[in-house]
Amino acid sequence: MPSRDHEERKLLYMAIITVNGEEAPISPAAPHTTVLDFLRERGLTGTKEGCAEGECGACAVLVARPGVNKPTDWVAVNACLVPVAALDGQEVITSEGLATAGASGEPAALHPVQEEMAVRGGSQCGYCTPGFICSMASEYYRPDRCAHPKAEAEAAEGTAADSEHGPNGFDLHALSGNLCRCTGYRPIRDAAFAVGTPLGNDPLAQRREQSPPAPVATAYTRDDRAFLRPGTLSDALRLLRERPDAVVVAGSTDWGVEVNIRSRRADCVVAVDRLPELRELRVESDRVEIGAALTLTEIERRLDGSVPVLAELFPQFASRLIRNSATLGGNLGTGSPIGDSPPVLLALEASLVLADADGEREVPLCDYFTGYRQSVRRPGELIRAVRVPLPLSPVTAFHKIAKRRFDDISSVAVAFALDIEDGTVRKARIGLGGVAATPIRALAAEAALEGEPWTAETVEAVARVLRAQGTPMDDHRASAGYRSAMLGQSLLKMYARTTEAVSS
Fold it and tell me: What is the pTM of this model?
């Protein structure tokens, strides 16, 4: 892939993105211009706009990112949400770039993913197809994807124990952010479960063995508006002190919606997603520290189930396309009362490391939220990391009540972390979302549980207490009565599952 002399580029600054192997200047695009609009202006119209909110996946493209199991991963993201300036110095592959160029006068050869979609009838009108192709290609190139002998045997017998994973190791959740209105999902699933493994001469497979482009400090200004990516955390904190009005973004999964749907514009946007100091994950003797700018996908794969309640959260958090960009820092920084991560982190008794130009401070998450989309975070402060204390409570659960199983906003979210010894609840932590102006701890229900036997009678009594927690409201997602009922039901559900586990 093309490289650039960064020192020369620093002297004569020009924001450039590499698209399908060719460098393209970002100028004259405005700083808020999305990758989607930038690509379509260049004639790459396979990338489509369906919803402009990151929910349909018609805009999906591949980006070269730091890998978990190899130096580089090809990661699918929503091009409709990402500002093109955020990909300064980065590499992008669109659906057009997947095909292999043919000899002179011959058409390009279809990529294996494109071939399977074609022969298995995975496309009808074709509008959503390029997005599906890019999401499918990201999973195709996932380094740890491998065939499962048991699944292969079941497929040969015409049975399948797991409808969401193919015999080729394909995780169907990779397509959870892609919607199709006409073809139906069965042939698309068939295509996904039919793809093989990349051949040794596949250029995109070979690309995984090299490091991704290093983050570059970006200062892209046009029409009196700026998109800035500082090179270090200290540079970012100094900049935020000078520009307290700046909008801070990481994955842009929230800000991108504001730009598209509400026509929001900012005089200055500061990107922190590639700051090394915000991208560390450390497991120490007394805590797990998670960098605020790690994407949810990176956290999920690096923790690999070692924090079970987080492993339960991640598949229910939006879609894989969103999780490939979204961060814990962003989800907490917006202060939304219906964010999915705060209830879980409240149950885990997490704290936040807040940093500004003067230093750092640690704030318990239960003291962080002060009102609707408000927090104790001061102007100029960033969330640097999330700290989860160890050891973890052994009995945990996360329940998300929403109209759709996946890729939906929760009506209510409940997380539990319990220590149960000799049949008695020694410690209880319960985090709630969607039932108040902020995410909250269910303090009354926690107190009612602690010291009591873990029995059906106790759970029934505490469920009544839990139903009264918060101040649920009526809206288009759910009524106040429904939300209250779901709080109590979630505890009953958890008890049923724990007793099932013990009896089995």
Answer: 0.93
